[in-house]
User: Fold Methylated-DNA--protein-cysteine methyltransferase from Promerops cafer.
Amino acid sequence: KQGGSPCREKHVVLLSPVGKIEISGCETGVHEIKLPKMSVLPTGAESSVACEVCEGAEEMPEPLEQCAAWLRAYFCEPVATGTLPVPAFHHPLLQRDSFTRQVLWTLLNDVKFGEAVSYKQLADLAGNSRAARAVGGAMRSNPIPIIIPCHRVIRSSGDSGSYGGGPLMKEWLLSHEKLQKEKLAR
Assistant:
């Protein structure tokens, strides 16, 4: 296609506790993770659904395999995400130097599982304390949700705020992390 990347893009669908997650990418890295829109919450954060690839498992490039393994761990044994490699990313937004990229990398590296930060706190962490609105824009354009955990960014009031996967998805992800973290603390 005109102006497109020369990538040989592959697609994988992962069946997860929150529904079908679509992952696209190439040999170089993950391009995008598309979350399902949730209209009803799965019952309990302890969903019985195993997390497995249901489409596209053949000839999966390594970054997609790593992405699927990371997401599987996130849903099924979150403590393992700390030991797994984060897959390479190959989305244009994450290639060029920008405040959005800075914010997304800061979020990925500094806001750990089970934690939450406000848009303002994340702006501070990314080096521009007056850029809370720009942080919101960065969250909206995040091509790799869950791995780059934009669901962990909430309003200063404590309200969860909006989310690309919808408010139910954000609530589910936050409560999943809270439950898993409490389990580990026991």
Remarks:
- The mean pLDDT is 88.
